[in-house]
Every structure is written in C-alpha cells, then in structure tokens.
Design brief:
612 residues; ten-stranded antiparallel beta sheet; mainly beta
Length: 612
C-alpha cells in the first residue's frame, strides 16, 4: 500500500514558523476522523488528533479532501477542503469504476467511517462484510448498499472490491443485508479472487447476474443486446425467442431499450418466457438511470458498444423521457498507423487538432511512455500549452497551485517520489497577485528545496550554487560563468631561471569569480638558486588575459636587501607570472636576485583578469 502524503509549514499571524508541540486534527468534511500514519506504507498510526513538534507538519493518509485543524494554546488555524493525493474530492457524481473506500484489518463490527472490513482475515472464509454507509468522500451510500439484498429478486447481487492502485480484486455473492447503526452487515458467500487485502484504498463495485448468468445492474451494467427501435416492451417484443438486433432472446436476458421514439419507455428490461416484459428491478425507478453506463455484448449493428444515460434525476418512470446515447469517447480505434485520438468537440473521425498524441514504441496506447504535444502554428503565438488550473473558490496564500512529480522505484522495489516542481500561490489579491516556483529533490532520503523563484528573486535555499570544474566561458557582459576556490604553489625565477631555487615554506590560495582572480601568496626562501637578473613570481593559477595588467601588493617582507619603497607585483598579459618591482628614482624598477637573498620572505596578494 502507498498512502498519500500531506506536508506543510504552519506559521503564526506574524509569519513565524510555529514552535513547540501543536495539535493536528484531520477530518472528512462530513465530520468523521481520518486514519493518519507517519509512513507511506500505513504501518505506524499517528492517532487523530496527534501532537506534532513544531510547525512543519507531515502525515500520510488515504487520498481525499479534508478539514485540517492546527491548534496551539489559543492559536487555531483551520484549512477546509484540502486535497491530498490523487483521490481528491469529486465535485459532482460518482466515478463508475466504484465507490472510494478504505480496507481495514479488523474482523469485528463496526467499521470506521468510509471503511470496509470482513469477519475473517482469510477472505476465502469470510461470511460477513461490514461496510460503512458513507464513502471516503462523504457520500451516503446506505440505500445503494441495502439494494444488494438478493432476497426475492430474480438476479443475484454481488460485491467486487479492487485494491488501489495495485488492482488486486476479490468478490462475493450477496445473500442478505442487515441494517446496523452507521453501517451495513452484508452476508456473503461464493468467494473468488484474493484471500487478503492490504490496509488502504479500495474501490467498491456492485455486480448483478440474471437467472441465466448474464451480468446485470451495477454502475457499469452489462446487457445482452440494445434495442433502438420504437418498441413497447411492456406489451410484446422481448419474450423468449424474440429477435432484437438479430439476437434471439431467452428468458432472463437483459435488454437495453435506447430508442428516439417514446423515450419514456427506455431503460433495462428483463426478457420473460411469454407476454410483456418488466423492467429490471435495479432500474425500476427513474432516478436509478441518470449517470449509468451500459455495455452491450451482442447484436449485428450495436454489439460491443457503450451507452450512457444523460438525463437528470427528478423524472417519473414511464412518463419522463430517459435519454440514452451511445458513448464514443476514449482511445477507441487507435492503431499502429495512427498518432491521433478522437475529437472531443462532437466531430468524429479526425485528430484532436491542432495537437497530436505520440505514444510509446508499441504504436498504440498500451504501456504509454512518451507523450508529445505538438503545435503546427507558424506564427508567434505560444504553443503547445499544458495548463494546470486550480479552480479554488477560496484561494489563499501558500496554496499549492500544482506539481509535476517525478517518481521511480528504489532498490527495494518501492515507488518513490524523487523530485518535483511545485507552483505556490503567495498572494491571491486581485491586481497584485504573486506566485513562486519551487524545485525540490531527494537528499539522503528527504525532500529538499533546491531552487525557489519568486518575488523577482532567484533563491538557493541550500545556500550552495555549483559551477562545473571546467568553466564554460561567456562573452556576455552580464553573465556569471564561473566560480572556483583553490590553492596554488608560488615559485620564484631570476632572469627567467628557477634553477636551484628552494623554499623553507611557501603557499597560496585563490578565488575566481567570472574572470576575476584574487590571489594570496607567501614564501620563505632557503636558497635563491643560481639564476641572476630580474625577479618574477611564477605559478599563478590561471593565465592572465592579453589586454590588461594585474596588480599585487606585498604587505609584509623581511631579510631582503637594498629594497627601495614598498615592493609591488605586476601581472603581465598572457602569462602565469608577475614581475616583482620596487621604487626607483624616477620609475619603478624590477627587483633582482641581489634584492631577494637566500632567506628572503614575502607575503602579499592582489587580483588580475584571467584569459577568457
């Protein structure tokens, strides 16, 4: 199991991060407390509410939209409808893939709100399920659960549970449903599938089979055939042996009537042995139709098609029209010669213009690996565009505006979030909006912010900006292209010769920022060698540029001879040497071996421009 993570810094009214112990409570918007954990696997429960040390709050839970309350003494902050994970709040309706619930490990009633548990840890031996009457999102499903009772019905109802996101599935047939306070006790038999589920998110789906085994009503209902003619099932046409779309019906078949004529007759009908048909009991009220999907298995014209009811609730069965339309969306028809998807604007048979979907090496939609969005606009208009829209009715500072997450497996085979790019709302005030962008990545297993761009400033939160070991020079006057710190070894030459020169001690350091090189040096000679003539400091860490002279000063010297004034050094163009000078009568003169004898000492430093 992998739970969703919530992480946020809570501050006081002055913007200071809270310190000391604070209380954190996580509730569904309908009021129930949410199980929270310290780890993604759900192994270590935190309790709810739980005490957190300081304002940096983090926990894991099943994805959803929650009310989070943080208190400390008289201070309280409440966040409403906080979306966590990929299973956040739905604005309207219910995904036909099933109700979002959580599986619990307990084997006794009652279950927690939004949760499901069985009366035996070995699901193949379970005879009862205890199911909360509300989903994780807070939807009331008590009536739908009660409808699972198969007593006196021609069809057999069942329950299918699918573990999210692994997809592990377990199912049972349902015999009876017992109403309890806040939950349903559902008696089950005929187990199939997994014998255990992990604590975490599950999808709960209702299944139904008719007398001959043809699947019936659920959020996605399978019928044998669809009838698009203006028939009257209540009187004749659907009985045993009748033909609908070239399919010969048998008693118990489910037939979907989806005709334009007399649309009030539309719906799911049960084929009788003789005479007029009756509506299937799962669709014997008007309000059971809106939002339902129907899969057709057989027929000449409409086999393997999908239909949906687009009517709204509130009608009268047999009086108000039930509108059923064939569903044509999705990636149907994407083949090896295609790089396109069907249009979604009602025009069929063309690409989703002006962009295309480039799929993986299989040339179809399986194992989708690479997605490329293409614009063929030849003008200056930006595009293609990927828009992430946080459509919040109450935007507030510090709201997360969206993330691009980069996940991969670790050495233990676990899905791991390695890096993310997050947009943050800093100020939602109309006309003076501010936002920032944060780049974060794992460092030693912890998510760390590396770059923060906002308020006209580029921040480096970790305080370190690294340049490559080999500089990449730029000719732009406003571009910083290098930073380096290091050590260098100063040398001496007299008349261009360093023969026999030895040192009792010597050392040097440098800092290079762009092309500016700042150096420090010191040396104490033990022998000035056999060279004679002008003195030069050698071994500068970078070759100087060819159009300027660098300058250095000697701040301290001793054991020199005949020195006039303060020694200085001049870095000549295109060299790694500096001429050592002293004052003369009318101009500076280069010092020689006679001025820097065997025990001479110099300490100094300066700066010069390095070659590009």
């Amino acid at each position: 199991m992998v739970l969703a993570r919530f992480e946020r810094d809570f501050t006081d009214e002055a913007g200071n991060l809270l310190t000391g112990n604070i209380s954190v409570e996580v509730r569904r918007e309908t009021g129930g407390l949410v199980p929270v954990y310290s780890d993604r696997a759900g192994a270590s429960a935190l309790g709810n509410p739980f005490v957190n040390s300081g304002g940096a709050v983090a926990f894991h839970c099943v994805g959803g939209a929650y009310k989070i309350t943080v208190t400390q003494g008289g201070f309280e902050r409440i966040l409403r409808y906080v979306g966590i994970g990929t299973k956040q709040e739905q604005d309207q309706g219910q995904d036909f893939a099933g109700y979002g619930m959580q599986w619990e490990s307990g084997t006794t009633a009652p279950p927690s709100a939004g949760c499901v548990r069985a009366n035996n840890a070995d699901l193949s031996l379970a005879t009862k399920l205890y199911i909360s009457e509300v989903t994780l999102a807070g939807s009331d499903i008590a009536t739908r659960l009660q409808e699972l009772d198969s007593t006196g019905k021609s069809q057999q109802n069942g329950i299918i549970l699918t573990q999210q996101p692994a997809g592990d599935t377990v199912s049972w047939k349902v015999s009876t449903v017992v109403d309890q306070t806040g939950y349903k006790e559902i008696n089950v038999n005929t187990h199939a599938g997994e014998t255990a589920l992990n604590v975490g998110s599950i999808s709960l789906l209702r299944s139904t089979t008719g007398g001959d085994g043809v699947d019936g009503a659920s959020m996605l209902t399978r019928v044998r055939v669809v009838d698009t003619t203006d028939s009257d099932p209540a009187t004749s046409g659907y009985s045993n042996g009748s033909s609908v779309d070239a399919v010969s019906l048998v008693t118990g078949d489910l037939v979907l009537r989806a005709a334009a004529g007399h649309p009030e007759r539309n719906g799911v009908w049960l084929a009788p042995a003789t005479g007029g048909a009756s509506r299937d009991t799962s669709f014997d009220t008007y309000n059971e139709h809106p939002g339902a999907y129907f899969s057709v298995m057989e027929g000449t014209a409409k086999a393997d098609t999908l239909w949906r009811c687009t009517s709204n609730k509130g009608g009268t069965l047999g009086v108000t029209a039930i509108t059923l339309t064939e569903f044509t969306g999705g990636l149907s028809g994407l083949g090896s010669a295609d790089n396109t998807v069907p249009r979604t604007d009602g025009t069929g048979g063309a690409a989703l213009q002006p962009s295309a979907l480039v799929v993986d090496d299989n040339a179809d939609a399986s194992g989708l690996r690479n997605v490329e969005q293409i614009s063929t606009d030849a003008g200056a208009t930006e595009g293609p565009t990927l828009s992430l829209y946080r459509n919040s009715a109450s935007p507030a500072a510090a709201d997360g505006m969206g993330e691009l997450q980069f996940n991969g497996k670790d050495s233990g085979g676990n899905k791991t979030l390695y890096a993310l790019l997050r947009a943050i709302l800093d100020d939602p005030a109309n006309g003076s909006e501010d936002a920032s962008v944060s780049l974060r990545a794992l460092v030693a297993g912890s998510m760390v912010e590396h770059l923060l761009i906002g308020g006209g400033v580029v921040g480096v939160p970790r305080g370190q900006l690294k340049f490559p070991s080999t500089a990449v020079p730029s000719s732009d006057a406003n571009t910083l292209d290098d930073y380096e710190e290091g050590a260098w070894t100063p040398g001496l030459a007299f008349g261009g010769s360093a023969t026999g020169v030895t040192f009792a001690s010597r050392g040097g350091t440098y800092i290079k920022i762009g092309r500016i090189v700042m150096v420090q040096f010191n040396f104490t000679l033990s022998n000035n060698g056999s060279g004679a003539g002008g003195a030069s400091l050698t071994g500068l860490p970078f070759t100087s540029e060819g159009a300027s002279f660098g300058q250095m000063q000697v701040s301290q010297w001793s054991a020199l001879s005949g020195v006039v004034g303060n020694p200085t050094l001049t870095v000549s163009p295109s060299t790694t040497e500096a001429v050592i000078n002293m004052s003369g009568a009318t101009a500076s003169v280069q010092m020689t071996d006679t001025n820097i004898p065997n025990t001479g000492v110099m300490i100094g430093g300066g700066a010069y421009f390095a070659a590009a």
